[in-house]
Amino acid sequence: MIRVQTDDFDAGTELEQLRRSNNGQAGAIVSFTGLVRELNAGEQVTQMTLEHYPGMTEKALEKIEQAANDQWELTASLIIHRVGPLAPDDNIVFVVAASQHREQAFRACEYMIDTLKTRAPFWKKETLPGSTRWVTPETTV
Amino acid sequence: MIRVQTDDFDAGTELEQLRRSNNGQAGAIVSFTGLVRELNAGEQVTQMTLEHYPGMTEKALEKIEQAANDQWELTASLIIHRVGPLAPDDNIVFVVAASQHREQAFRACEYMIDTLKTRAPFWKKETLPGSTRWVTPETTV
Amino acid sequence: MVRLRYFASLRETLGIGDEQLELPDGVHDLPALTRWLQDRDATWASALADNRLHVAINQEIVKADASIADGDEVAWFPPVTGG
Amino acid sequence: MVRLRYFASLRETLGIGDEQLELPDGVHDLPALTRWLQDRDATWASALADNRLHVAINQEIVKADASIADGDEVAWFPPVTGG
């Protein structure tokens, strides 16, 4: 399942839901949470705005999730990405892979976030004290 | 931080606490949740009991967490492992690594669960319909 | 008609995020369309000359020589930085 | 006195999880202590002959030839299966 939303998400609720609908299948759930950092490339970040390409974003995320499910045996997967204005420590992204086998869950989760970072049409703009700047692939992690 | 407990844990509460005490440091949190599977090595598992070696368990987990912090730049880490009787889909273990960099968080989280599986003194006994059996490294994932 | 979209820093540089236009005569592929847009003025010429830009047609990333047809949605944007 | 501990399937096979005893005369290392325990009966002889067993002294995994001193806690157990 994929979701693009301005609202916050609750990692715990999402994980608990996965666990409850597991039906004894998965033995391993790996999750990645991406947070807004306060310091990026040496500068104090007071706010971050996430722009995206509505329509293409959802397609890109669905493709990434599908590719993960094609490559690894997953019992469940999830990608949630926020857009709009965010503050330091806010949740940005949540990626989860559940599998019978922990290696498969780790590989699939890492694949999804790595691919999302290079393929999904999101752009971060940081507000610094007195200025703004677009994040570039060189100044992101 | 490490914890060995009979009580359940709530992955969401733990992740939320990490996020709130993050102080803008970590951009990446990777978590591993291990659950009791209903089917193991082809057999229906109705209950699982986790035995451990009190005292040594805590030392082993602290050593694993310390080794992860020595090898990777983590802003926070956590290992929670349950002991006692458990049912299918119950939480067994929760391992979390937070870092500025997602690769470090992935490597550290995977290292901790991999090492825990071969070094920490826990033993699983499964109750099947009509019998019990000790899990061996060959029949676990 | 084609729908043209510009995102992030490119949108800010061009001062526009979305426009519709009749596909100009003789324009059947991405290089021709990009050149046609670059002819608008120096800002367009320089902004679209950046070879780090990605282009999506109908919301799928395409190669630099992709062909373009009436009804397409074409989007230019800088390297993505989500996640 | 040494404290001896047995876990999981080994504990069940031996029917005991924890005991204290005076270190027998001439027993200063793990091989000697294991042999001494194996002399108890056929069950002990066979259970402790399993070379997959791990041994911890004072709650740290040790090698097969580790030395043992008065006051030590020595534990035998099968391969771990937590996580």
Describe this structure in words.
The complex is a heterotetramer, with two copies of chain A (141 residues) and two copies of chain C (83 residues). Chain A has helices at 11-20, 56-71, 102-119, and strands at residues 2-5, 28-35, 39-40, 43-44, 47-52, 74-82, 84-86, 91-99, 122-128, 131-134. Chain A has 141 residues and is α+β, with helices and mostly antiparallel strands. In chain A, strand 3 (39-40) and strand 4 (43-44) form a beta hairpin. In chain A, helix 2 packs antiparallel against helix 3 (102-119). Chain A is elongated. In chain C, strand 3 (54-57) and strand 4 form a beta hairpin. Chain C has helices at residues 8-14, 30-38, 42-47, and strands at 2-6, 18-21, 54-57, 60-61, 73-77. Chain C contains three helices and five strands. Chain C has a five-stranded mixed beta sheet with strand order 2-1-5-3-4. The N and C termini of chain C lie far apart (34 Å). Chain C has 83 residues and is an alpha+beta fold. The relative contact order of chain C is 0.29. The longest helix of chain C has 9 residues, at 30-38. Chains in contact: A-B, A-C, B-D. Strand 2 of chain A pairs antiparallel with strand 2 (28-35) of chain B, so a sheet runs across the interface.
Q: What structural class do the secondary elements of chain C suggest?
A: alpha+beta
Task: Compute the CA-based radius of gyration of chain C.
Answer: 12 Å
Distance between the termini of chain A: 25 Å
Strand order of the largest sheet of chain C: 2-1-5-3-4
* Overall outline of chain A: elongated
Enumerate the spans of chain A where pLDDT stays under 50 for 5 or more consecutive residues: none
What's the total count of β strands of chain C?
Answer: 5
Net shape of chain C: globular
Number of strands of chain A: 10
Main sheet specs of chain A? 4 strands, mixed
